[in-house]
Amino acid sequence: MILGDICTRSCRFCNTKTGRPLPVDPLEPENLAESVRQMAVKHIVLTSVDRDDLSDLGAGHWVQVIRTVRRVNPAITLEVLIPDFQGKPELVQRIIDEMPEVVSHNVETVRRLTLEVRSAASYNCSLQVLSQLSAGGIRTKSGLMLGLGETEEELLETMSDLLKAGCKVLTLGQYLQPTRRHLPVKAYIHPDVFFRYKTIGLEKGFEVVESGPLVRSSYRAEKHL
């Protein structure tokens, strides 16, 4: 996770610290690239907090990290799990221009529950970001947490929306409440239901569906290239 550990948003499912972030570390791209080299990582998933405090929302730092990691590790493949950049096309385009092998942006939940679950991001904005990425020739990926009160019909509608946005890879996992301050779990989804959703997702047109109680967005990420 880049750009610090303090997020400018306060989504009700997430246990990342919220507040005023520290200044961006200009040495982070080089330090991260060197860490990747020392660990001999072949495929890396990068993500970040939201940085709504920055004039470019952190897009410029993202670009520097991607370029530096690749320069120091020429054989590496990349998945970047990006924020919505407030839906600003010129910022999303900066990620497209770097052509990561996979770009992931999670819708997190179904349309009806978005305002309750996500503090600032909107469902339509996330679909817009995914559509722009897909139109730019990027392999796109998104994920949802289940057990927040969504219905099966709503989940299937979200699958259709993601496919229309060009999304190729879908992850479905069980929401688990981090602390008592966060949203409660409304339902624990049986593994058989997760398997059925995987089958439905593949039949609907996703190329890859990872679906299970412990699945998270980076689960088996190296297989999503």
Describe the structure.
With 225 residues, the protein is α/β, with parallel strands linked by helices. It has one domain (6-224): Aldolase class I (TIM Barrel). The protein has helices at residues 28-39, 59-72, 89-98, 114-117, 123-135, 152-164, 191-204, and strands at residues 6-7, 17-18, 43-47, 77-81, 102-104, 140-146, 169-174, 208-211. Helix 1 (28-39) runs parallel beside helix 2 (59-72) and helix 2 (59-72) packs parallel to helix 3 (89-98). The model has no long low-confidence stretch (mean pLDDT 97).
What proportion of the residues is helical, as a percent range?
25-40%
The percent range for strand residues is: 15-25%
CATH superfamily: Aldolase class I
**CATH domain topology:** TIM Barrel
Distance between the termini: 20 Å
Low-confidence parts: none
Number of strands: 8
Q: How much is the average pLDDT?
A: 97
**What's the arrangement of strands in the largest beta sheet?**
3-4-5-6-7-8
Q: Please describe the biggest sheet, giving its number of strands, its sense, and whether it closes into a barrel.
A: 6 strands, parallel
Secondary-structure class: alpha/beta
Please tell me the CATH architecture by its name: Alpha-Beta Barrel
Count of DSSP H/I helices: 7
Radius of gyration of CA atoms, rounded to a whole number: 17 Å
What is the ordering of alpha helices and beta strands? EEHEHEHEHHEHEHE
Question: What count of domains describes the coordinates?
Answer: 1
Q: Tell me the overall shape.
A: globular
Q: What is the level 1 CATH name? A: Alpha Beta
